[in-house]
Design goal:
- The protein is α+β, with helices and mostly antiparallel strands.
- It is built from 17 helices and 14 strands.
- The strands form four sheets. The protein has a six-stranded mixed sheet with strand order 2-1-10-11-7-6, with no helix packed on it. Strands 5-8-9-12 form a four-stranded mixed sheet. Strands 3-4 form a two-stranded antiparallel sheet.
Length: 488
Amino acid sequence: MPVRTGAQYVENLQKHPREVWLRGERVDEVTTHPALRRPIEQIARLYDLQHDPELAPVLTAEGPDGSRVGRAFLPCRTPEDLRARREAFRAWAEPTLGLMGRSPDFLNTTLMAFTESPGVFAKLGKRYADNIARYYEHVRDNDLFLTHALITPQTDRSKGASEQQDQFLHMGVVSETDEGLVVRGARMLATLAPMADELIIYSLPGLRPGDERHAACFAIPIDTPGLRLISRAPFDDGTRRPFDHPLSSHFEEADCLVVFDDVLVPWDRVFLHGDVELANALYAETNLRQHTAHQTGVRGLVKLQFVTGLAMKLSQSVKIDGFLHVQQKLGECIAAVEQAHALIVAAEAEYETTATGTIRPRFNALQTLRVLLSNQYPKLVEVLQTLGAGGLLMMPSAEDFGSPIADDIARYYRGAEMPAVDRIRLYKLAWDLCGDAFGQRAVQYERYYAGDPVRILAMNYLAYDKSECFRLVDRALALAGDPDTPAP
């Protein structure tokens, strides 16, 4: 099957009803539900871009059988391939302004990384390596949309999964049967789960001895019996007007708790189970971090450019961009954008070569970019809040333009050289990004997108090749000589 269209994506959702709970009610049909319909439309548009005459060569490439497949699925063999993949990531990030953090290309890269490392899964037996290879081909050839849930529920963080009062509070394997694994418990944070086709499960590093039943990697369709999705309260219930809420009315992502009520995972969908050490090593040994971070970095760059452009336009609208302290803040935004861009280019230019001859972006540059995004995006949002000041709090609504006070709106809300309607539209866009609950969720999401930023920085230190730095220190120490060395 060639790459899907948006209509085919929506049709597949309709053919596979899933158990989704939203505000205490079960959702009968996700494609028509007011709180889910509009983000599904945005994802459908991404799939349609794969058939756009100009973007199809960017987003897709020739697969093994000659048909077009999503570029994120394919390993890179040349530096040109890496740059082409970057352009594909950007072509999907721009339509959503970088605000949909789990667009389909994200986990497509994960599956590609898994299938590039069959030896990791083969440590438990050849059938597990065969399973991941077949599953990768299934997702690639059917152009499916995956979500994942990597985190255990935030209950008692002082205890491991196996130490919780309820042994299946955290998702774990109840039993092994002839048909497969029976799984019970919960995981989070499954972003866009109600509108995905499949769910893939693996663990973040940190499992402890005794957590063997919780060490599992597998994938199942979203409509698997016993799988329940409990969505957080939506920021847009489907009634928000785009003029007043231009972002949240289009790009709302449903984050879900995933509940496994004795779910059967067929053996051909199991990639790893029961091995804590291997589950903890999965990230590093498959090098999936480089591939997902490449997509994340490009999406994050688009997001930084968006908030920077918005801060600059907002400043120009009331002519505060002539003040030195405002220019300083805007300069800091530009510096964050350029740092992100430089790290992406550096990661591609100083690529790593795998044992099979494929290449991947350099790890340290992308890991640094992960930290940069979690730190800088909240700062840029704060700049937007500061520059918008009280003006962000007093914008009228769309209804006011057709009311008896329309003349007041036109007179008192205009900008320096901008009519009121344009300034209000600009400030509402800024508020949706920096003040509304939707925008604050985006800040929190970016902070923890790649995990605990403190732990990531610590891992940078622990995994870093220190030899070059130490070589320079040793050279400097040699200048001191021995205590009895005379002065030159």
